[in-house]
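Example S7 (structure tokens).
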């Protein structure tokens, strides 16, 4: 009798342990359930498309090697038609604050115009320039400067 009772209790304990959700944070995951960023979010854009393009020194034209990122952004924006974005223009630390604000604006406008040319409604895209005020990478060398010469697409 004790063996039967002990076996039954052991089975119940095991069953109860299996029934508890492994994720106590509230988002249960299981077979067949997708994981990753929610579609149409900034996280989705960054993970699946790319949120930034880079520019040459003192230039605001879209480089041929950066066009595929903007093509993917255009397709993503066509899929997520409710999404509005801001394109931030940035520059490296060289040059005056005023010059870099203007350069950052030209870079943001260049990315915006590219997306519009690919069919994205311009009313969904705002631009802003931060010039050299928000570097992505600190440093006074070509590697840092190259990462700071950019336009970043941000979901509103």
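Recovered sequence:
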């Amino acid at each position: 009798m004790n063996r039967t009772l002990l076996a039954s209790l052991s089975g119940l304990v095991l069953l109860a342990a299996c029934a508890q959700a492994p994720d106590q944070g509230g988002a249960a995951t299981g077979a067949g359930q997708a994981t990753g960023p929610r579609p149409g979010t900034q996280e989705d854009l960054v993970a699946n498309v790319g949120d930034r393009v880079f520019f040459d020194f003192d230039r605001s034209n879209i480089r041929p090697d950066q066009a595929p990122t903007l093509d993917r952004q255009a397709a993503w924006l066509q899929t997520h038609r409710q999404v509005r974005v801001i394109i931030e223009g940035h520059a490296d630390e060289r040059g005056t604050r005023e010059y870099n604000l203007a350069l950052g604006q030209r870079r943001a406008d260049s990315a915006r115009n590219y997306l519009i040319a690919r069919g994205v409604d311009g009313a969904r895209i705002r631009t802003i320039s931060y010039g050299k005020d928000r570097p992505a990478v600190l440093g006074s060398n070509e590697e840092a400067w190259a990462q700071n010469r950019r336009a970043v697409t941000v979901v509103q």
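Notes on this example. Confidence is low (pLDDT under 50) at residues 9-29.
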